[in-house]
Design goal:
The chain is an alpha/beta fold. It has 14 helices and 17 strands. It is 34% helix and 18% strand. β3 and β4 form a beta hairpin. About 1% of the residues have low confidence.
């Protein structure tokens, strides 16, 4: 097998500190410019700083295996080298004062020798520049899940009329009687193969069969579902056996509203949790919020607007008095029933008996999602919501973000449930904007 040479950009190492182990039996080149950039990141207190330090420590440990400038063996059969770019790119207009261009120069110098080189970067512009020089350029795709093929959490199934009737009578059908591949907590719409209006909505249970939806889960905090998908979401949000719920959908589908309604119901009315913890990523995750005015809650209020909007809506009185809902919300915050937290400070915590909502989770990397979920202690339920088409992180897309990654990797777990919501329920205007603009 011909050995390929992969030149890694800094953003690949910061995205996944274990990425150098992901190219089996090949040669990994890390330009000196990448080491210099890692040095700039290593003192940061956020996840990028942590990842930079982890990569640096790993590279330092490899020096025991030989001269890293000449190449040292990796456990996966590959070779890793750190090399310094040199020489000018004749006839090529690249500003070599820029770190990205220094990295590309290394890839080009190898390409010019006729070697099989591949430039790996999360930066689209860097890939474009390398491609323009004739260098094969790719995104780092180890954690990628193709969004168009994402597990939706439900499917339609054509069955006989007798099976539907038996399901209504017996409240259970074995999976052995159904055709297809199914996942824990997946929803099935059973459709009569003769009369499509004759249907039944079921959920895959832990007993290797399907069961009806639970009647008491048809509303939360006086909020009733407006669509079949929202009803499925409530089933997952209110079921104690499910510890992680992922909700994916475009703007206006009700992801955050349903999550907060379920949190209020189970925390305030049913006392199942000690408090509600709500957070959204600051871009980039971990950016210090100290430059904002006011105390912690006043700082967070500047970027928690969507959460406050939903809380005011849910807490309004029967007459819809906005002053009443504002006072109720402030009381819940001051009594620490609802806590707002920056994701920066979640790492290292053990969060027990809390209903945790992470909004806009599509802006998190797979590693950041792992960091957050692993904070869950005993009795905690976690909900991740997001729209993969509204990503602000420059190095993520609809297929590489942490939310999508979590959905795909956890779909076989009985403590996880997922629903993709497709219909906007916010308003007719919001629905038109989401689908047409």
């Amino acid at each position: 097998m011909k050995v390929k040479t992969f030149v890694l950009d800094t953003n690949v190492l910061l995205h996944d500190p274990n990425s150098i182990e992901s190219f089996e039996d090949n040669c990994i080149l890390i330009p000196m410019a990448v080491i210099e950039e890692l040095d700039r990141f290593k003192t940061r207190v956020d996840d990028l700083g942590r990842n930079a330090r982890q990569v640096i420590r790993r590279l330092d440990s490899l020096r025991t295996k030989g001269k890293i400038s000449e190449g040292v063996p990796l456990d996966n059969g590959g070779i890793l080298k750190i090399i310094k770019g040199s020489g000018k790119l004749e006839g090529i207009d690249l500003n070599l004062d820029l770190p990205d261009n220094k990295i590309i120069r290394v890839a080009y110098s190898i390409f010019a020798k006729g070697d099989d080189v591949i430039f790996v970067s999360k930066d689209i512009n860097a890939r474009l520049k390398a491609d323009a020089l004739g260098i094969e350029s790719v995104d780092y795709e180890k954690s990628k899940v193709f969004f168009d093929e994402l597990y939706s959490g439900y499917q339609s199934l054509s069955v006989t009329s007798k099976l539907i009737e038996r399901f209504y009578d017996e409240k259970f059908i074995s999976l052995d009687e159904l055709k297809g591949e199914f996942y824990p907590n997946q929803f099935l719409l059973l459709e009569d193969e003769v009369n499509v209006k004759h249907t039944a909505l079921a959920r895959v249970s832990g007993q290797d069969g399907i069961i009806p939806l639970v009647a008491k889960f048809d509303s939360a905090w006086h909020v009733k579902p407006r669509s079949r998908e929202q009803r499925m979401a409530l089933e997952l949000l209110l079921d104690d056996t499910i510890k992680l719920v992922t909700l994916v959908g475009q703007a206006g589908t009700g992801k955050t509203l349903l999550a907060i309604a379920a949190a209020l119901e189970q925390t305030i009315d049913l006392n199942k949790f000690d408090k509600i913890l709500v957070s959204r990523p600051i871009m980039p995750m971990g950016k210090d919020i100290g430059y904002l005015p006011g105390d912690k809650n006043e700082k967070l209020e500047n970027w928690m607007g969507p959460i406050f909007d939903n809380l005011r809506f849910l807490l309004r009185g029967k007459n819809g008095d906005p002053d009443s809902s504002q006072k109720k919300m402030q009381d819940l915050l001051s009594n620490h029933v609802i806590e707002l937290e920056a994701l920066t400070y979640i790492r290292g915590r053990s969060i027990a008996r809390q209903f945790v909502i992470v909004d806009e989770a599509q802006n998190l990397t797979p590693h950041e999602i792992k960091t957050i979920i692993s904070r869950a202690g005993e009795g905690t339920k976690m909900v991740l919501t997001g729209d993969p088409y509204q990503i602000d992180n420059p190095y993520l897309d609809s297929s590489s973000n942490g939310l999508i990654y979590a959905v795909e990797r956890l779909k076989n777990e009985k403590i996880h449930g997922h629903i993709t919501l497709k219909k906007s329920e916010r308003s007719s205007l919001a629905a038109a904007a989401a689908s047409l603009l």
